[in-house]
Design a protein that fits this description.
heterodimer; A: mainly alpha; 20 helices; 2 strands; B: about 45% helix; about 15% strand
């Protein structure tokens, strides 16, 4: 900002100097065009363009401010939560001061216990011990009740020796692990949420280790989200391509009718569409009933088509289909049918004509649709929550869980941040391969 | 002279101002958050309507459910508290209280004594007044089955639920470790009083998951309380876990052929917390004094089959308001139903929910 503000007067001065120089050296050099008042045309044009750009900026400024306030700031704030770690620093200052020089070899002595008792006493009075316990419990199960119990009773402790008193309240204070944990997390920023988001943790020796196998879930869900989104994108391309072709090449009246059939579900509530799929696909649902009735299946072996990955894929493909049809349609609409006819009349068979002439021209539409569908799919959460059952859940469901139920916002922010970065990386890769400037929405 | 003449005007405006604030202390409405559906209806009929009639203060009902603690926290932390009273379960209430997000309650001062003069701290179910939490009801999570799916032998116990050979058919369980792990151990032969002790060890947890493994392939997981009765009615599953009030509604009001298995019911409390910093604290406290007295809690049981959280309310529980069904046999607290009841250990879950849920989710996703 500062540099920008300074440079504008500087440019004016340079322009002024130059125009004076020009005026002095008039008549202008042969070959340079000038305006009526003797300023070179190029300079004058540049000035006009700059003015236009400024006007354009003022026009978008309200929107920019709106996006910054309602979108960028909250996201930034949320992402920061993935590394912020204020609890111990704020509520255990005395303990941390004593532990600063602790070598971590043996359970610390009376001084540390006295500081801990004091911190807990104050945390109890200020009603902060819950936050403290919750924070420690993220790292070590059972710490919440250790802190709660100790804070309640420490509030009644009048004098030392505190070590003995606290050990009497709970022998877990004699466990070196909890002290190492306090020392480690006594920093304003932490990487433990990010570690947890990729299924790692600190152990009692403060080493970073993988979570036990039966607790690893995030990497699996990240992988599943990416793979399912990719599958859904491919399916929408396969389904949308012929529909869009039909829409673009039918006479207007019929095409409009068909278009309404595409748009009608698009305008219908997401929940209604998702629930409709449940009615269709459940084991006692329409499709299974039909299959049993015509004798393809017997009543005992009805297909499980929903409340699993299949359900998620089917419902999401249907819901995201219009996002592929619309860009494809608008691109295909602009391809003159003459090109294909020309290819055919020059001897190409239908497939070659399609492959060499038509398909390349639809790539911008396919690209636009794919980016839209993929990015929507990777953050989708209501549909998988409703029809995903056990195996169709995505990483977004886990983020929602930590936001709304476990209230571990740090971990939710870390998961969201990783998802955001991964999506941006894919976007950059995509830009390298296809080029975003080739994307066309119509 | 001029100075003097302004004095009465000043006094008048001060008086106006004061009366203005007096009016502001009596709010027009209280924003009360609860679970929606039949449950909120029962609160409206038993608490809200009589209260509005008595005081003229309206009640705005907000349906929220399991995400209420998260939103309450967001409201308190951002300093924009618009909720006056929130209906939550016991474990989240303890956590909200510990984190300073809920108002602390001086029970004997705020709440009404029983008709015979018993103080609230004596009258509410023992060990449930934990600082901020004001219990209303006892509800149970338990199993029910569709009679049509078991024409011959009927399941009788939790062990039967886990026995796919004797009682084949799909099961439906809630997508949470709560209750499911307790049942797994109970079905595996652990005594009720030892369940949480066993669950607190790694071996115990392994044992519970191993037991759940035996039925995993046959389980449809539900998330909303309305799902299990629906799944049973559609015959999507043969046996489902769910909230006893929902099963009661399906059984008695909708005449579904369901039977409730009271064996191993996991009961817990549900009640109120006041968000820290509500602008209408005084009115809320008055409301609580009214809405949690002995008669009001007993009244709620006319509309839904959840047991009142006050001992003195139990004898007053009467018949269902619409159908005239005697409510006592449908109460989780009824002695006949209560023999093998498991009390959900709220403190155990406050401590272990994060790590156990992580493992549970990983187990589910695989």
């Amino acid at each position: 900002m500062h540099a920008g503000r300074q440079s504008r007067p500087a440019i004016f001065i340079i322009l002024l100097l130059r125009s004076i120089a020009m005026a002095q050296s008039s008549p202008a050099l042969p070959g340079t065009l000038t305006t009526a008042d003797g300023i070179p045309l190029k300079l004058s044009l540049q000035r006009a363009q700059r003015r236009n750009r400024r006007h354009a900026f003022f026009l978008v400024a309200p929107l920019l401010a709106f996006i910054a306030v309602t979108f960028l700031l909250p996201i930034g704030d949320m992402l920061l939560r993935s590394v912020q770690n204020p609890e111990l620093v704020s509520y255990m200052p005395r303990t941390l001061a004593v532990l600063k020089d602790w070598d971590g070899q043996e359970v610390p002595g009376e001084e540390a216990f006295a500081a801990l008792a004091q911190d807990l006493k104050i945390a109890f009075q200020d009603k902060n011990f819950g936050k403290l316990g919750t924070r420690l419990n993220y790292e070590k199960s059972g710490a919440a009740s250790l802190v709660r119990k100790s804070a309640r009773r420490a509030a009644r402790l009048e004098e030392g020796p505190y070590r003995e008193a606290l050990l009497k309240i709970d022998k877990d204070w004699g466990d070196i692990g909890i002290w190492r944990l306090i020392q480690r997390e006594g920093r304003p920023y932490t990487d433990s949420y990010l570690l947890a988001a990729v299924d790692f943790q600190y152990n009692d020796q403060n080493e970073v280790v993988a979570l036990p196998e039966n607790q690893r879930i995030h990497i699996l869900l990240f992988q599943r989200s990416f793979i399912l989104s990719l599958v859904i994108t491919l399916l929408t391309i396969l389904l949308a391509y012929p529909i869009s072709y039909l829409l673009a090449n039918l006479p207007a009246r019929k095409a409009n009718m068909l278009m309404i059939l595409v748009l009608l579900p698009f305008w219908t509530s997401l929940l209604v569409r998702t629930t409709a799929w449940i009615v269709m696909l459940q084991t006692q649902g329409v499709l299974n009933d039909l299959l049993v009735w015509i004798g393809v299946l017997d009543d005992e072996n009805r297909l499980q088509m929903i409340f699993n990955q299949t359900g998620t894929i089917i419902a999401m493909t249907h819901i995201l289909l219009p996002f592929m049809v619309l860009p494809l349609y608008s691109v295909m609409k602009t391809i003159p049918p003459n090109y294909l006819r020309a290819a055919r009349s020059l001897g190409a068979n239908p497939f070659t004509a399609f492959w060499k002439v038509y398909l390349p021209q639809t790539v911008p539409g396919v690209s636009a649709g794919s980016v839209l569908v993929f990015i929507l799919a990777i953050g989708y959460f209501i549909t998988p929550a409703l029809v995903g059952g056990r195996t169709g859940q995505l990483i977004s469901n886990r983020i929602a869980f930590h936001m709304q139920e476990s209230l571990n916002w740090g971990l939710a922010a870390a998961l969201g941040g990783i998802l955001l970065v991964a999506t941006l990386l894919l976007y950059i890769l995509y830009n390298r391969l296809v080029g975003v400037d080739k994307v066309k929405l119509g | 002279m001029q100075h003097l003449s302004t004095l009465p005007a000043l006094a008048l405006s001060t008086a106006l101002l004061l009366s203005g604030t007096a009016v502001a202390q009596q709010p027009e409405a209280l924003n009360i958050v609860s679970w929606g559906g039949a449950y909120t209806q029962s609160q409206i009929k038993a608490y809200h309507d009589p209260w509005t009639e008595k005081t003229g203060i309206k009640i705005v009902n907000i349906d929220e459910g399991g995400t209420a603690p998260a939103k309450l926290r967001a409201q308190v932390e951002s300093g924009t508290v618009t909720w006056d009273l929130v209906d939550v379960l016991e474990a989240p209430a303890i956590r909200l209280c510990d984190e300073g997000l809920a108002e602390e309650i001086d029970y004997d001062k705020v709440l009404a004594a029983a008709p015979d003069g018993t103080l609230p701290t004596e009258d509410f179910i023992e060990g449930t007044l934990s600082g901020c939490f004001i219990p209303e009801i006892v509800y149970a999570t338990l199993f029910a089955y569709n009679d049509d799916m078991f024409p011959d032998a009927k399941p009788q116990t939790i062990a039967d639920v886990f026995d796919l050979e004797k009682f084949p058919g799909k099961r439906s369980l809630e997508k949470t470790p709560y209750a499911n792990l307790e049942w797994a151990l109970y079905a595996d032969g652990v005594a009720i009083e030892d369940i949480y002790e066993v669950l607190d060890t790694d071996e115990g947890l392994d044992r519970a998951f191993a037991k759940l493994d035996t039925i995993k392939s046959q389980v449809v997981w539900w998330e909303a309380g309305a799902q299990p009765p629906q799944l049973l009615a559609d015959k999507e599953v043969a046996i489902a876990s769910g909230y006893n009030g929902r099963f009661f509604n399906a059984q008695v009001i909708e005449n579904q052929p369901f039977t409730i298995l009271w064996d191993g019911q996991v009961f817990e409390l549900d009640g109120w917390v006041i968000p820290k910093g509500t602008p209408n604290l005084e009115a809320v406290l008055e409301y609580l004094h009214f809405a949690t007295d002995t008669q009001r809690l007993a009244d709620q049981a006319k509309f839904i089959s959840y047991g009142p959280a006050r001992n003195s309310s139990a004898p007053l529980v009467a018949t269902h308001a619409e159908t005239g069904v005697d409510m006592k046999p449908h109460m989780p607290t009824n002695p006949e139903n209560f023999g093998t009841a498991i009390k959900k250990d709220a403190l155990f879950w406050v401590d272990n929910y994060d790590s156990i849920n992580q493992r549970f989710s990983a187990w589910l996703a695989q």
